[in-house]
Amino acid sequence: MSEKKKFNIEYEIKSSPRILYTFLNEANGLTQWFADDVSVRDQIYTFTWDDEKQNAKLVALKENKLVRFKWIDDEPQCYFEMEIIQDELTNDVALSITDFATEETIAERKQIWDNQIDYLISTLGA
After folding, report:
1. Mind listing the pLDDT tens digit for each residue in 54-103?
2. In this structure, what are the phi and psi dihedrals at residue 74, rounded to the nearest 5 degrees?
3. Which of 11, 27, 76, 93 has the most CB atoms around its CB within 10 Å?
4. What sections of 4-105 are H helices per DSSP?
5. Half-sphere exposure of 58 (CA within 13 A, CB side)
């Protein structure tokens, strides 16, 4: 199995960090754009897509700034992170995604994120 590599993508989002943050860390917010269903218990988020469940532990949280999850069954160094970046001069808001994938699947994984973030933007009405 090939080693997973870290990659980063950034999206401009026309939203306040406070509103965007609720879509990144609350089960209800995540259900609206990220997964078919999301439930949370003791810092473990259960994401469901097409009746398939995947568990991720919430490993980092900075209010209105950052959420980092670690898939329970993934390699120890792997995680996915959603960070809200706000430009101090223009107040423009961007969402930075950090994720891990094998060399062969990075393009596919980026495409999945592109689709999910497009859905998030339309959900936000941004």
Report:
1. 999 999 999 999 999 999 999 889 999 999 999 999 999 999 999 999 99
2. -100, 175
3. 93
4. 17-25, 27-31
5. 18
Which run of H or of E encompasses 124? helix 106-124
What pTM was estimated for this model as a whole? 0.92
In 95-111, which positions are buried (b, 16+ CB within 10 angstroms) versus exposed (e)? bebbbbbeeeebeebbe
Residue 36 and residue 30: Cα distance in Å, rounded? 9
Token couple for 96: 């930075």
Query: How many Å apart are CA 22 and CA 7, to the nearest integer?
Result: 24
Q: Which residue has the tokens 């917010």?
A: 29
95, two tokens = 């969402």
User: Any residues with CB less than 8 A from the CB of 5 and at least 6 apart, and which?
Assistant: 100, 101, 102, 103, 106
2-43 residue pLDDT tens = 799 999 999 999 999 999 999 999 999 999 999 999 999 999
